[in-house]
Amino acid sequence: MNNNRRDFIKKSASLTAAISVSGLSACTGTGKKGDASENSQGSSPKKVQWPILDGPDTPKLILTCPREATPEYMRMLKQIGIDYVLIQWQDGLPLPWTESGIRTIMDRFKAEGLTVFNMMLPVVSNSIYNREGRDEEIKQVQDSLRAAGAAGLPIIEYNFYAHRLVEGYYHLLGRGGAGYTAFDYSRTGGISDNLNWINLKARAAHELNTAPKDLAPLPGIGAYTYEQLWDNLTYFLKAVIPVAEKAGVRMSLHPNDPPVPVSRGSQQIMGTFNDWKRLIDVVDSPSNGMTYDCGVSNEIGEDPLEVLDYLISRDRINHVHYRNCTVEIPREKYVEVFTDTGTVDMFAVMQQLVQRKYKFGLYPEHPRSLDYDKEHPGRGNNIGGNYAGFVYTTAYARAMMQAALTIEKR
Asked: Before 330, cis peptide (omega within 30)?
């Protein structure tokens, strides 16, 4: 096929529009004999065997769950159609992991009908900052990768933040009074206490009138240049990716979120599309992949579909974060909104994932703050008190996936 990727994306969007118009005509009965909406069976769409569920070559809806989750909570996930779970670093195992330790966790979830599909590494601070003990820490990661492979754990996700500028987040009221998460690199006034989905630490009193972009480095961390951090990440990748590949494990690095240029004095190395391209070139292996986040792709001012195409065509998407946002200033000012109200074409994203046979986890993350969850915090205590919010994001993602799979089968 001689079309370049940009042409492919444009043609995919046109095809989506054509299918949508055709489907609308069929549903409303406006299709006429000889119209483009008429198929080989007349105006009725081709029947597809339902239900359409996750399969070996489809995205797998996944939610976070602590390793000590109760069977009752696991049932709550099963009830909303979740079969796969992600264990975040705060809830996971300390390094080094062992095969028996991982199997114990996986078997506990398996007994409740859930598959542990992704576990996050703890923060690898010595590697990020090139501190004493870096090589021992890397050895622990290598041993953990071997243990994961032996236990059958396919994905290991990790972060490489010098600092995450959570100080720029604040709370906005959105549709029906729901809570939106906003970010502003230049805003003063402190952090909202409504952002219970992340462990926020309030700024010192003297910093409340300082814009996030101007905040000083934190004691004990300091400031790092762009190339210093790239050197540290490159050293880490060259040591661990060959081990991961041999173990049959894929690693997935999440981009900087928020994707600001500088965070408390440290330049950020995973905040642009060029950075993501650089990452996957350091070690040429599917085990050296990324968490594709269509929301972050939008936040940095890129076309999420072009980002997706670039990464998936190279087999470098090892996990997906599925969320939406609106952007005022790329990298610096945006609002995370309901999945159906942002500027990311969520259906086109899902279509591409389905068409390209993406088969790893898809996390419908960052639910909006709902009144029901505020009134019933215990119902979602294992996913940040947002159970109803996650029911919404999960159902939305499931509908998008079933629609995309239906079109593929027709």
From this structure: no
Where does 236-284 show beta strands of DSSP type E? 250-253, 262-263, 266-267
- Could you tell me if 285 and 243 are in contact, meaning their C-beta atoms sit under 8 angstroms apart? no
Phi, psi dihedral angles at 343 (to 5 degrees): -100, 0
User: Cβ neighbours of residue 306 under 8 Å, at least 6 residues apart?
Assistant: 5, 6, 9
* Residue 108 CB neighbour total at 10 angstroms: 16
Per the prediction, the chain carries an average pLDDT of 88
- Asked if 360 and 376 touch (Cβ cutoff 8 Å), the reply is no
Query: CA-to-CA distance for 406 and 175, rounded, in angstroms?
Result: 30
Kindly list the strands in the beta sheet with 169-173, ordered across the sheet, starting from the edge strand earlier in the chain.
169-173, 179-184, 333-337, 324-329
Over the stretch 88-115, which tens digit does the pLDDT of each residue have? 988 889 999 999 999 999 999 999 999 9
Q: Quick check: 325 and 24 in contact, CB under 8 A?
A: no
CA 95 vs. chain centroid, Å, equals 23
Q: In one letter, which amino acid is 299?
A: E
Q: Quick check: 20 pLDDT over 90?
A: no
Q: Is 147 in contact with 101 (CB distance < 8 Å)?
A: yes
Q: What is the CB neighbour count within 10 angstroms for residue 244?
A: 26
Query: What are the DSSP calls for 70-103, one per residue?
Result: -HHHHHHHHHTT--EEEE-GGGSPPSSP-HHHHH
CATH for 59-409, among 2.40.128.600, 3.40.1190.10, 3.20.20.150, 2.40.128.110? 3.20.20.150
* Per-residue tokens: 160: 């490489």
Q: How many residues does the chain have?
A: 410
Domains of the chain: which residue ranges? 59-409
**HSE-CB for 187 with a 13 A CA cutoff:** 19
Q: Identify which of 118, 123, 121 has the alpha carbon closest to the alpha carbon of residue 63.
A: 118
Q: DSSP for 134-194, please give it.
A: HHHHHHHHHHHHHHHHHHT--EEEE---S---GGGEEEEE-GGGPEEEEEETT--S---TT
Q: 168-203 pLDDT, tens per residue?
A: 999 999 999 999 999 999 998 655 444 433 434 445
Please give the Cα distance from 75 to 79 (Å, whole number): 6
- The residue type found at 173 is L
Buried b or exposed e, range 148-157, using 16+ CB within 10 angstroms? bbbbebbbbb
List Cβ neighbours of 367 (8 Å cut-off, separation of 6 or more).
Answer: 197, 386, 388, 389, 390, 392, 393
